[in-house]
Amino acid sequence: MNRGATSGKVHTVTSIKVGLKNFGRELDTTVTFTHVDHSTVRFNDQLDVKLEPIDAEYQQGKVFAEGGQGIIREGLDLNLRRPVAIKTLKSQPEDQFTRGQFIQEARVTAQLSHPAIIPIYSLNSDDKDGLHLVMKLVDGKTLKDYLDQLDYEYRKAGIEQFNERKSLMFRLEIMLRVCDALDYAHSRNIMHCDLKPENILIGEFRETYIMDWGIARQIEELGYDPATWVKPNTISGTPRFLSPEAIQGEHTDQRADIYALGLILFEVVTLREAYMARTSAEVVSMIREGRIAETRHKYGFKIDPDLKAIIAKATAYNRDERYQNVRDLGNDIRRYMGGEETTANPYHLFGRISAFAVHHKRASLAFAVACILTLLLTIGVTAYRRVSQINAVHAYSQQLATAQVQSTACADYIETNIARNAQFLSSITSEFVFLYETDPDDGETTPDCMMPVSALRDANDAPSSLLYSSVYHRKIDFSHFSHKTIHGEELTGVEKRRLHILAHLKNTIMDVFNERLPEKLADASSAEKNEYLRLTGIPLHLLLFGFPDGQYIVYPGSGVYASTYDPRSRHWYKTAQSSSGEFAWSKPYPGNTAAAGYLLSCNVPMLDTAGNFLGVAGFDLHLNTIIRDLKTNGNVGNNVLEKTLLDNRGLILVSTGARFAGAMETNKEDSLAIRFDDADLFKQFTEIKYGTISRTENGRRIIYCVNYLPSQDWYYIEKIDVTATAPNLF
Fold it and tell me: Least packed by Cβ within 10 Å: which of 28, 435, 594, 726?
């Protein structure tokens, strides 16, 4: 945390490497109470497959966290050379219950693909039948540690030295990301059952993760019948975050998670615990009797009535009186942050005026002056103008809040898809390297799904599935790969071996392309899906493989590549080859043909376990398809002037604006390096990361909706003209 008597920047997270190390602190805080219901449904706890040995895939490093049932250590992925966290179960193989919980945590977390849920890489064993869970290593600290550090700073220097309002807004942003992740889990019929600040991790770039899904269960349990349901004798969970219905032994649902979220929100807002007691038994008694603490800030900071109402509704003793889903809770927090009316505390006329005055002091002062001057003319005119002005400002505030919410939804869509594509590329490269090192069989013949480029150019040899695509602007074939070499002679054994390895991965690759299709095509036939990919397209354009000897393999197949085409000279290959082993994004660059348009590629060098360079794998994103998706997601309408994706240097990766379109039209040879033309404005983007910036440009009122994408260190910006709806206070 950065603290200063004049700056007051309490909300900044210290960038220290703790990552999942904090996760290990609470491995044993989940306790069991007798005669209370938990209703846990297991997700097929027992293993029915043989696990790979941990030492075959990962190098285990030093231990950085330990609890009663497990330890967590640093590790290294031997295939991808990336750091990982390895959670190891201490229990013996005969302890089936503890092993079952460990396996459940792995399987539940693996089902949840969301930017705010730490991805699971693998589940492994060892020669002693132990269990090891491998996951992403994250730099950051838990929400509990962050709140403790904040409490220490306030206690040491005094809250008056800091900007608590700004810090509170940052903490509420963390809560919004937790709500979004939990809403996603609930949509997958999974509830966490052990939400608490210790299980929320804040990364060094403000990314947020929900951890420890070890006792998660299904919300709608298979075979559940209230008439025949029998109370279990135990409940698992952290005492001070249990819901009243769980304490009473009733069957619980997603509203128990919402209650725990309300208690976390209580701590985030007040810096105090909702149930202050010395023992777990006292906490359980207080929850059963509904004796929750008063919503009062530990250091006397004034808490808005709207925020108190949100906490009260989330922690209502009767679950029917709570928010019925996490999305409603998150939306109320967003409304509060945007100065809007919340469902937990609906405004009357005076309340709306008061809320506006609190959140818009400068505008309120201007309004009051106008009222006093107008009062000298007539009382009637004054009243009319006052009401009109309030309505205009309130409508404008709603517009800003709505615009930011829509922009954030589009940013989340972009980041989720980037993460999915990067995960896909990581998985494919890992499988390729594994097969390359373990399966030496080159095969006598070329696999049927592998077509040489020359054959696809020949009308007599080309398969019937090779058809013209209005997206690719050439004939393509989703049933085949295409490949070529520089030497143009018979394939070598190594070249055949690569083709055979990728042929093994064909179905996996085709499934990934189909998974990116709209939901309406979920039950469509393969022919219908290929038709959509051919005529409409998705941002995921091509999957590319280039090798040191000049061999080139691409999916979907095409015959447009000239005999002189050398992947080693292409921008995407050079970008990855010069990287340090991590994912490398190219600048926008023109495709192989003029009609193909511009592409944005993500590439990674393929290294064997000894660190030897095997080649480059990557995927191309089609900019025209991305631009099409941007125009239909987020804010839409004639007043949306431009949507832009920027890297951390201010270079434009893709934009719906005329300047970017003109550059793509005129520059057909080199990659684009167009910099955002207002350096001071870009600096503001990097400083606020999330929110809106309002300014006047050429006599028009313009807002910029800013969203930071932490996974790639990018920024998504929407430029909107609000002149027509902005009140005359500016």
Answer: 594
Is 0.70 surpassed by the pTM of this model?
no
Dihedral over Cα of 501, 504, 506, 509: its sign: negative
Instruction: Quickly count helices (H) and strands (E) in the chain.
Output: 20, 27
What count of Cα atoms within 13 Å lies in the side-chain half-sphere of residue 413? Answer: 15
In this structure, the number of other CB atoms found within 10 A of the CB of residue 492 comes to: 14
Range 19-337 classified under CATH 3.30.70.1060: no
Between the CA of residue 232 and those of 88, 221, 235, what are the distances in Å? 29, 14, 8
Helix locations, 58-163, DSSP H: 96-111, 143-157
Asked if residues 356 and 390 have their Cβ atoms less than 8 Å apart, the reply is: yes
pLDDT for 310-362, tens place per residue?
999 999 999 999 999 999 999 999 999 988 899 999 876 555 566 556 556 67
Query: CA-to-CA distance for 147 and 594, rounded, in angstroms?
Result: 55
Structure tokens at 401: 């809040």
Q: Given the structure tokens 């190098």, which residue do they identify? A: 59
- Which backbone phi and psi does 543 adopt, to 5 degrees? -110, 125
Spatial separation of the C-alpha atoms in residues 659 and 676, rounded to whole Å: 10
Q: What's the pLDDT tens digit per position in 52-67?
A: 899 999 999 998 877 6
Tokens for 492, please give them: 């070598």
Token couple for 515: 């998974």
Whole-angstrom distance, CA of residue 214 vs CA of residue 204: 25
d(CA 555, CA 483): 9
Q: Are strands 450-452 and 481-484 parallel, antiparallel or unpaired?
A: parallel
Distance of CA 172 to the CA centre of its chain: 17
Whether the Cβ atoms of residue 676 and residue 644 lie closer than 8 Å to each other: yes
Distances (CA, A) of 166 to 163, 178, 315, 330, 353: 6, 19, 25, 19, 23
What are the residue ranges spanned by the domains of the chain? 19-337, 411-627, 636-721
584-589: average pLDDT: 86
Say which CATH architecture domain 636-721 belongs to: 2-Layer Sandwich (3.30)
Q: Report d(CA 236, CA 12) in Å as an integer.
A: 34
For 709, half-sphere exposure in the C-beta direction (CA atoms, 13 angstrom radius) is 23
Torsion angle of alpha carbons 279, 283, 289, 294, nearest 10°? 120
CATH architecture assigned to 411-627:
2-Layer Sandwich (3.30)
For 654, phi then psi, to 5°, come to -160, 145
> CA dihedral defined by 215, 217, 219, 220, rounded to 10 degrees?
-160
Question: Which DSSP symbol is given to 317?
Answer: S
End-to-end CA distance of the chain: 36
Helix, strand or coil for residue 370? helix
